[in-house]
Amino acid sequence: MTDESDESGFPLIGDQFPELEVETTHGPKSIPDDYEGKWFILFSHPGDFTPVCTTEFVGFEQRREAFEELNTELIGLSIDRVHSHIKWTEWIDEEIDEKIDFPIIADESGDVANALGMVHPGQGSSTVRAVFIVDPDGITRQVLYYPKEIGRNVDEVLRSLEALQTSDQEGVALPANWPENENFGDKVLLSPPGTVDEAEARTAEADEEGYESYDWWFTLKERES
């Protein structure tokens, strides 16, 4: 694995994702270059043959087609060798009847985990459970961390991806628990105006378009699609 960035440490939201050359169960890959034009989600695991990680791999695979429908590829990572990854996925197929079809990065040396800031003080040599959502331009759009004891909510990762894509496509923000907000359903939020003139224009726009406006700074509308 080579890291062509000048600095190590986890990428922040809005940062270009580090350029990495990795070995995977699907062969060598260049990240993010091999995923140009697609979103990808990279998620790390402390090690193969661990129970929480196994349930997460099954959860991601069972929703893989839903991610692919959103032009998104999945990439797993674990601090073990490719041969161990292959044996682990064989076990999952045989015992849980789920064939893992996304690539898994081999990171026995821990270089990738260190480059992405996934080894935290006090956690030993294994990675925390990290999730990076990266857009088609290779920009890091969301970062999630979970402790080793708690499995990820895969549906929340999928929801976050859909929300990010909706925000990009429609130029809007999304309420809490979108698209199933308890008060507003799947409606989206318009960005607050930044000037007095824009605030007055927003009020007029809301009246004209029939938006659900509680105030000039809190206005909702139906999704475009």
TrEMBL record:
Entries under CDD domains matching the protein: PRX_1cys
Keywords: Antioxidant, Cytoplasm, Disulfide bond, Oxidoreductase, Peroxidase, Redox-active center
Compartment(s) of residence: Cytoplasm
A Pfam cross-reference name: AhpC-TSA
Reactions catalysed: a hydroperoxide + [thioredoxin]-dithiol = an alcohol + [thioredoxin]-disulfide + H2O
Keyword Cytoplasm recorded: yes
Protein name in UniProt: Peroxiredoxin
SUPFAM superfamilies the record matches: Thioredoxin-like
Residues at the active site: C53 (cysteine sulfenic acid (-soh) intermediate), C53 (cysteine sulfenic acid (-soh) intermediate)
Subunit field text: Homodecamer. Pentamer of dimers that assemble into a ring structure.
Its EC number(s): 1.11.1.24
PANTHER family given in the database record: ALKYL HYDROPEROXIDE REDUCTASE C, THIOREDOXIN PEROXIDASE
GO cellular-component term (any): cytosol
Record's function text: Thiol-specific peroxidase that catalyzes the reduction of hydrogen peroxide and organic hydroperoxides to water and alcohols, respectively. Plays a role in cell protection against oxidative stress by detoxifying peroxides.
